[in-house]
């Protein structure tokens, strides 16, 4: 067997200190998954070796860890990205990683293949016309009871895809590309719900993290702390805005549940990506301009209002200056793309999702932009060396059954940038009538 030939894990340079960091001991089920994959990829049983390196940077994920696997035989070498639950027991258990991995394995095994197949049967086969913008998945496995899961994917960096710098608000071309393709994804959902209602039923999934909102959840204090961070960042003289946020603090758990209730969004509820920020998408460029997008991290895919994906992205990943100039145009781009996709799927967009319905969805659920911005904006303003110690926070939760602090705190280095961006999120939500 190949595990008898495994070399020692590779070293990895720590970007902050320059000191090589060793890949930790990895679970046996990861080796077994790669051993099953290798023959399917043309490697000879018993003659290949597997080595590992780190696959992502600090702060790129909370509920999972990424490692790069290199399978070698003779002069051939192939690279795969392996996503597994946190190795730290407390972090894996307290942050509900297995729930997220079960959802993502389902996405790669069932959801995406059926969505792709539906498009092809409708005559949509080109990436230029449809939504096929997910990484290739070679293997997806999850056993929640055993706390084992691995998702093996292509390394998009080998195809010249790149992450946007999460500290920078996105520009027009990147935002346009996202709005175009999320519109297509939502359109397929609406069309398939009409054409294949029985098959579609399995995709009517709830938010896997709604249990974090329950009265006995250790996350409640943390959520309240995030709201208070927003209030503290607002101008003390802006009494109207502060009063609105104080009221939101009273209602935050009800609002999070309301914005995620698909029954309130019918008949326009869709299967949404659920985690639309810049670290969950990669871009390929030509002459410096983004030409292609891939959506990553499908761990919170759920059935919900289409407005969620839109305001999550716009209010977390753009800034106030961008929204003042392009907000309405971004919504137009989204709906035009959705409408064109519905027509390619032989449906009338004025029947399945007219523009007036989109405006109503945004008005009813647009407040979700603040609810997600209060988590995402501080993270985007935090330097890598100031990111929280997730293992320590998980240990505290395990010992006390409470998380009494924010994930991200303002520091001298990020206070000004955070205050400006989050204040604009609140003001823009009011400006558009969402708050």
TrEMBL record:
InterPro entries: CHK_kinase-like, EcKL, Kinase-like_dom_sf
Domain of life: Eukaryota
Segments of this protein annotated with the region Disordered: 1-22
Pfam families the record matches: EcKL
CHK kinase-like domain mapped to chain residues: 151-344
Protein name: CHK kinase-like domain-containing protein
Organism of this sequence: Anopheles atroparvus
